[in-house]
Amino acid sequence: MSRTIIGAIVAVVIAVLTAVCYVVVSGGLAERVKVDARAQMTASRLPQQALNNARLDLLNLSGRVEALAADPGVIGALRTSSSADRVREANLAFARFHSGVRDPVAPDVLALIDATGNIVAMDGVNNPVATELKDKDGKLTWPGLALVIDQTRPQRRVIAEVWNYPGRGLMRVGLASVVDTQTVDGVPRVVGAVVLASSQSSKLAREEQVLLGVEVAYFEGGKVHATSFRKGDNTEDARMQEALAPLLTQGDLVKRAFAADSGLASPLTATVGGKTFLVGAIRMPRYPAARNLPDDYPPVTAGALVLAPAGREVPEHATAGRLVLVLGAVALLLALGAMWLASRRILDQVDELEVGVAEIINGNLERTFRPVGDDLDGLANGLNVMLARLLGRPEPGEEEMDDDGNPIVPGRVEFDEDSEARPPAEGPSPELAALAQEPEPDYYKRVYTEYVAARRATGNPDEVSFEGFIAKLRVNEGKLKALHQCKAVRFRVVTKDGKVTLKPVPIF
Q1: Are residues 51 and 85 in contact, defined by beta-carbon separation less than 8 angstroms?
Q2: CA pair distance 127, 188, nearest whole angstrom
Q3: What CATH number should be reported for the domain whose range is 57-199?
């Protein structure tokens, strides 16, 4: 089996195991997330907690605005007829308000209103627009403000609700009447009001998301104003406002929340932005309750959506799935890398052995195999032993060494590369015919004797064994027969310039 097939099998096995692990882990986790989300939403724990948080915020807001309305500086600012004194007294009252509040986030709107609904002073604004809270006809746009400055009811009224503030969007707003008890006739009267408002922004939604562990969206009427959904740069994903808008009109989720006394509605499953959620709705609270307000006071139109992930898109699922895939990819790379390194290590050693075998096939019988590496050193040594026994030379460890530490190979036989590749046109000569007809045992013995005698005659005697000599002849005969496509190859002993060689003679 080739290395490519083995690598492909390993890759397929790891890929299949990774896929199985991904399905088992992510599928089980996704189902668990669905069950948990359904349990929390069905029991209304998450919507109820969101509603309780909104109630606490509005209760805190009503207490803060009521305390500000009772500040002597606020009352003094509305008593005086001097504009400069009004602003100065109001700003001092605002400063005392900020110093007594631990909330690090300042309100978006902090204003003092006179008995006609005009803005007398606004925190952080030097010249506020006096008619900001009135329409073009001079009528107050906010029913709650008209109620708290009503002169026919000489008592302090406090209202805290979520309202679409003109020009500023959806806000949590607190209103409190400013009542002056020091009058000429001794009857208290309402001289103005305090407005305290904070935006129902995506930042607030994000804080709510951190508390609840689910996404939150604020809406009013048929429009989503802010959500906790974030983009990669941690800014609000405004596209989700449009994606959530159909939930306000489709089905009866919002209707049920606004019709229920509890202000809650049982959740439903919905797909938003390609993701699956269990969605619950709550009606924003108001203080005081509707029964303590006039019958013609507008109903609450603001609410919130609570969205619990219920699909495979939840962060836990995505993280687990990515981890399984990453581990599978790493395992695949490590396995293939290990196979490649192992094969390269062995192949380099095999290549060296192949080169040596090729040289021996081509007639270099003096070739020995050097150590190639731990994996195939035994094979290289075995080949050396085999050649030594076939050629009658010393086995590894028994040979003599030269000054450079290389083994001295005795019995070296020199071959002449020149040969007659084609038969003569007039036919073979008597000498060639006799050479071809000579019996093989006699031929080998004669050539060996002539070669050894010629070497001695030239003063270059060499201890070459008969077996080694014949083995070298046979190797070269086989190579030359394939090269010249002849019937046989025989050798003549040739002495030229003091050098003894064996010249091949092809027999066709």
Answers
A1: no
A2: 30
A3: 3.30.450.20
Which one is the CATH code of 202-313: 1.10.10, 3.90.1530, 1.20.1740, 3.30.450? 3.30.450
Tell me which residue has tokens 């013995």: 445
In the block, which residue shows the tokens 């509305």?
78
pLDDT tens per residue, range 443-485: 888 888 888 888 888 887 767 778 778 877 887 887 788 778 8
Say how far residue 488 (Cα) sits from the centre of its chain: 71
Q: What is the bridge-based pairing of β-strands 275-283 and 302-309?
A: antiparallel
- Render pLDDT for 401-414 as a digit per residue (tens, 0 to 9): 655 555 555 566 77
Other Cβ atoms less than 10 A from the Cβ of 447: the count is 19
Residue 226 DSSP symbol: E
Neighbours of 263 (CB within 10 A): 21
CATH topology of 57-199 equal to that of 202-313?
yes
What residue segments make up the domains of the chain, in order of their start?
57-199, 202-313, 430-507
Joined together, the tokens standing for residue 344 give 């390269």
Counting every residue, how long is the chain?
508
Residue written as token pair 């809650």: 264
Burial of 213 (0-12, 13-18, 19+ CB in 10 A): exposed
Rounded to the nearest angstrom, the gap between the alpha carbon of residue 241 and the centroid of all alpha carbons in its chain is: 27
Q: What would the two tokens of residue 219 be?
A: 């809406």
